[in-house]
């Protein structure tokens, strides 16, 4: 059995739900074959989220960590390629913190690449009939903060661990006027199951074009 730790976030910015936690909860209730899935909800708070992530990794002792967050406005599931060492919050987090141009980890590298086969993960989601893409930026809010913190933990303390970050579109109930793309929780969960399967079974990523011009 492959031990998988999934993390999602609590709601933020006035929303009543967070699609990341909706989807993660569904996967934990019905995990992919051959996996043992633990789901943990993280606070949408700088610093606190990393403390909760570190504690969850220590307790679950996973082989694979997949952190999941909300990226409202994106039309599909996006697998993040790189985490950068900067917190630059356009809005306050749930504790009112709003760091500007601060490092996630003082003295840490400028960036880390995900230790997942990101292109194979995207291909697996598409094969499941769900829109997906490689993302070149996880932003500079708490999602990137957690992604970088996970990568730094892997680099400095758990070299055998693999992990990465996935962003989900809004849940349908968050888009009342239909002006933004949305993805039902069941489909988002299916996407995460596909990503887990690809991550578990793929060690060498696909060599296909998934870059961006800007």
TrEMBL record:
Pfam families: Peptidase_C15. SUPFAM superfamilies: Pyrrolidone carboxyl peptidase (pyroglutamate aminopeptidase). GO terms for cellular component: cytosol. One of its GO terms (biological process) is proteolysis. Its EC number is 3.4.19.3. Signal peptide: none annotated. GO terms for molecular function: pyroglutamyl-peptidase activity. The keyword Lipid biosynthesis does not apply. The keyword Protease applies. Keywords: Cytoplasm, Hydrolase, Protease, Thiol protease. It is an enzyme of class 3 (hydrolase). The active site is at residues 80, 143, 167. InterPro entries: Peptidase_C15, Peptidase_C15-like, Peptidase_C15-like_sf, PGP-I_bact-type, PGPEP1_Cys_AS, PGPEP1_Glu_AS. It is found in: Cytoplasm. It catalyses: Release of an N-terminal pyroglutamyl group from a polypeptide, the second amino acid generally not being Pro. Removes 5-oxoproline from various penultimate amino acid residues except L-proline. NCBIfam families: PRK13197.1 (NF009676), pyro_pdase (TIGR00504). HAMAP family: Pyrrolid_peptidase. Homotetramer. Belongs to the peptidase C15 family. This is Pyrrolidone-carboxylate peptidase.
